[in-house]
Queue: 3 jobs
Job 1
Amino acid sequence: MSEKIRVRFAPSPTGSLHIGGARTALFNWLFAKRYGGTCVLRIEDTDEVRSTPETVDQILHSLSWLGLAWDEGPVLGSDGTVNLAGEGPFAPYHQMAEERRAHYAKYAAQLLDGGKAYKCWCTKEDIEVRRVTNPELRGYDGRCRRLSDEERKKNEGRPFSIRFAMPFEGTTVVEDLIRGNVAFENNLLQDLVIQKTSGGPTYNFACVVDDHLMDITHVIRGDDHLSNTPSQIRLYSALGWEPPKFGHLSMIHGPDGKKLSKRHGAASAGEYRELGFLPETVRNYLALLGWSTSDSQQVFAEGELESKFSIEGCSKSPSRFDREKLEWMNGEYLRAKTPEEMLRLSRPFLDAAQIEASDEALLPLLAMEREKFHLLTDVPKRLDFFFKDVEYDEKSVNKVLKKEGVDAILEAAAPMLEALAEWTEAKLEEAIRGFATEKGWKMGQVFHPIRVATSGRTDGPTLFGMLEHLGKDRVLARIAEARRRFCREGQSA
RNA sequence: GGCGCGUUCGUCUAGCGGCCUAGGACGCUGCCCUCUCAAGGCAGAGAUCACGGGUUCAAAUCCCGUACGCGCCA
């Protein structure tokens, strides 16, 4: 195809970027990257949902966090302010803008003049009454389309909407890139309102006008729009325009198979950032929801999604959002990070957990625990006892410290540790193993109590490395504290 | 209600008429490694390919119908 590809992502500014919206944005972006096209971001605020700088700001931030850069559309200034109109040859990129509204009115008038649309004086109430009294009626009965000139004249001056006159015969075929040809009977298409009584355009009309004026070549969107597509195609044709190519993506559902919503936990892309997910994880995971390669590849290196994405790989059936797989994938990406990268990424989460620690202190710990993190929020969770007072986990204490004979082991271990001249991982291992052997205790009998006494938990880093980083003073103090608090038996008051 | 879309392990999916005794991934179970937790390795359970009819020498794959789910319009 010789024409330059232009795709768009057109969210409604109803708040933060929904997971489904993020997926649509991602697929458009991947499509553009794959074929060297241009990405346009357009805010769809026709339905009296005013876009505010705040809502656009949220959407822009989420897209930018996900690493999806748009070539044209509203932009976020370096000072944090939003330029709603946006940058690019077709600005402004939101429909409530005066310049855009003038276009919609112009083309609606053109259709009206050409006899392809007509004025409708029926009110919402009229239509509702007719619907209730005549249950056979499917939608609008088209009565204003059949009005005589005389009757029309009588109505002039009263508020009206403009309806598009759908053909009565034939079929309209949507040649969908993902679902193949889908045919719709024209006589079942409603005479849809293109201009409301208020003078503003309806969604379906504004969408068509904008996509045409912005030279959009491919419309990739959720399949909730598939049923609107034949009507849109009729509009293109009535305006004498070539419609873009369409591709309708299957929807994303929650774990229960119902539409994904707040009930299912985090529903907006931004929330995943706060939960400790990496943008590359969310991108990779979302890509796999509705798209796959023929070898079912799971994890993609940087740049690989862009080079492998294809519209043919898109699936027709809906998918469910699986948080467990998302977490696994995040672990995969986290494990691939260097300690330095981990440090930079986890800083905000350490700060939030009020853990103050120097880079020098953190780096070896991050290296030591590197393969254990699934979320960035796991970093403060796993490292807190290196920087704050130990919080003894009740289960761990009961299981290990309150066992008979443990106090004697800790009592004997303390002076042995105190006497250690060199406090290094290797020396600690040598000394503690030697100590256990000498006393006739099994390794685990000694290791576990020391672990729980010094970290407060049964799971943690490798014991000797942990002790080294904790330092002799803290290790001895914690052993003493643990004995005092949990090992009453065997104590001689 | 009308129209449209969809239906392969619990979940994401591969599959585009013979390579399928249906492959991979998450999760799950067991074993190995091992100072715990992970990670890793290995093994395993798990799908009568929604159901019923056709077409064909041969169907998860093509056609028709039914059911269920979802969407749009009302």
Job 2
Amino acid sequence: MASLTIENYVKAIFQLCQASGGNSAATGQIAAALGVLPGTVTSMLKTLADVALASYTPYEGVSLTPAGRALALRVLRRHRLIEQFLVTTLDMPWDEVHEEAEHMEHAVSDRLIDRIDAYLNYPASDPHGDPIPKSDGTLVVTADKPLASCIVGEKFRVTRVRDQSPEFLRSLTDLGLEIGACGQVVAADATGQITLRLGEATAELARTAADQILVE
Amino acid sequence: MASLTIENYVKAIFQLCQASGGNSAATGQIAAALGVLPGTVTSMLKTLADVALASYTPYEGVSLTPAGRALALRVLRRHRLIEQFLVTTLDMPWDEVHEEAEHMEHAVSDRLIDRIDAYLNYPASDPHGDPIPKSDGTLVVTADKPLASCIVGEKFRVTRVRDQSPEFLRSLTDLGLEIGACGQVVAADATGQITLRLGEATAELARTAADQILVE
DNA sequence: GGCAGAAGTTCGGAAAGACGAATTTGCATC
DNA sequence: GATGCAAATTCGTCTTTCCGAACTTCTGCC
């Protein structure tokens, strides 16, 4: 069985590949994502290659093998179902569940996860809008784009949030930008400030923040 | 923060003390409980003494300090609330939850545990009848005795099960000896076989099994 | 085409936690 | 009091995962 550490590396690699749109991740990015030094990552990448979870070429990056991708999806499935479960069942705020799931994802059995899945009636996504991988390893591709890429006048509906830090999520709650919220881009000035209309209210948002919000 | 390993050692020491009625545990018992070799335990006992979780005298045994007892109770509280939660909310069978909780107890935050406690309306005991420590570190003492100590003719109600292995628990389910089940000791022969009446039915039980069942 | 500087790799070493063999201690028995 | 066995301890070693410093490779810029 894969150790907790290996699960975290594989998950990080998978998510970095997704984020970059490519299919390989850089040592430095992985180090930053996991909070370790680059040298540590290099040696772990060799380990991952040894156990056939990743293909690693020095100075070029890593990509996951099918086995690595499957493991990453299992971890992600556990993580996201746990998040959804905590919000649905225990009414936890959406800004607390990520951290909790980060630990629990390595501790729950697949049997329990499948039970949670059934209990929640097979949800398609977690509280942050991230799609939940199926038990057969399938992951639906979402059709969304950053709010920052919307032109002035464009209407949108919030479908997903990338940055899942508690502070950022709380600020979204304060602005009324929950998952499913609808609005319209009113203005975007050169300094990167974006103005939104949300029903009656108006909200101001930095471009960097709007980049973390996915809409359709 | 205490490592997963330290939490397991402290929990094992606490439970061995409880089981023996004394307040110290032997190296060999701890090794057997945790599935490691005695030498490993000896070195860990020194570590526990170093961080003031236990008092250790070579060749005599260990006992927990107040800090060690507090940690053990926190772990036990997490374990038992998780068990109760899995049974109540997800309808998991009582023979599966121990193993699951064994892993999860190290992964959930105290914040989440308190939320589960409130959600379950502050249950007094877990699915096996073990009392749940309160968040202030209090643990109620149960007034129960082994079914094996009942004399012929004595009536009883099952309050708690010591052996929490799936096989044993399933055999109890088959016999109708769930928590709360009432019955009467009908016979006890010299070979250690005990006969019970449970409502309409009759059940045969080995003395070793009856020793694992606590009643009042 | 050459050369900083950034990114990546190598290597020695440390901490946690475990094993296994050799040794020591304690205790019951004679 | 001597002895022998079971239990406990000691010690060297292994694996995993990390750090940090020294070194190598890559890349963008002149």
Job 3
Amino acid sequence: MAQTTERRWRGRGADERKAERRALLMAAAVKVYSERGFRHSSVKAVCDEAGLTERYFYESFTNSEEMLVAVASASLEQMVSELQAKCAAVSPDKRLQTILFHYYGMLREQPAHARAFLVEIRGISPIVDAYLETATERFAELVVNSPLSRLSRTDRMVAIGAVGAIVHIALDWILNDFSAPIDDVVQAAEKLGTIIDGIEKAIRVA
Amino acid sequence: MAQTTERRWRGRGADERKAERRALLMAAAVKVYSERGFRHSSVKAVCDEAGLTERYFYESFTNSEEMLVAVASASLEQMVSELQAKCAAVSPDKRLQTILFHYYGMLREQPAHARAFLVEIRGISPIVDAYLETATERFAELVVNSPLSRLSRTDRMVAIGAVGAIVHIALDWILNDFSAPIDDVVQAAEKLGTIIDGIEKAIRVA
DNA sequence: CGGTGGTGACAATACAGATTGTCACTTCCC
DNA sequence: GGGAAGTGACAATCTGTATTGTCACCACCG
């Protein structure tokens, strides 16, 4: 059996170094994707940005697409958990406003993530598209504060539609270089969110 | 000066033949795009589908991307004008419902177009993205029945958001192979459209 | 110190697609 | 009929990228 040698190197163990490189690559990927779009992002470009060579790319990922999904998932998870944390501290009727405010705020603070995962990600491959579907549902559940499975078919579609509205408003905002004040953006999305509030309250009562 | 010879060939003039080939290519493109996505659609695949050789591709388009925009624009124009025609015959308060019903109906009748231009088109290139922005605005103006320039910044974003909702509901519907009945889909979109109705009526009064 | 694991630069290979070019064959016009 | 425009099949070239492999050098451990 080949036991992992775990020899130390510049102060760190093997696993630790590997994880660092993976993280470097993922951060580099976000940047590169946001600049040229996934479609025009070569493995080499990501590696150069990370200051690593291709070898280390294939150490952590089997191919380019896998990295895309990894990076997008990580970004989504971080976002969702952050939003959940914000919501926990807030009364239920401020929920939607809170989500919107922090969601748009996060996009503005991390424009590279915003461009990478809102603008550049659709239609890459069936796998990525499937992932996106999941992400949308995840976000929708966050917004209505309930598993989608508990909703009627129509309400489910309404929730999906609301996410679409929120995201498109974000896209528009991004494409206009975040020029509108965030409060206006939140307000616009909130108007559409009224409908969601209805659903969410109905669930809370039931 | 090289005068166009306009020699007849199989009954048709040169311009006519060229236009036919262009049309053949565009139809083939829709089909191929919808099947594999633009990113995985080679020029050759489109030509094969059209029953023409690459030479004729470069006769009508300078590159693959130009064809994508051409095809998408044509599809959008056809859709918008069709929807406008439907609306003309209908009382203002049925406007939104009419648009939604026919929009979703058209998608279901032409699933290839739907997949090609809703699922497969984002993040191809700056040019295509710019086109998409225009398309969204065009659709938004149709929905609120007014130039966006007449709207307040917030209302403009609401309108964009509404389009996003409508489109995302469509995406979801498509990804689930149109399994929900169209009336449910329309109903879901209409709920979100309530807000738009407000905007649209305000404009009508003013 | 000496050897091995770890690393970086870079070459080698493989493949796919875009774009251009060649050539034999058809249809037309005079 | 004969030459030229028009056509279709396909070769040739070019470019970019993924993926694997080589090799010299460095940092650690005993």
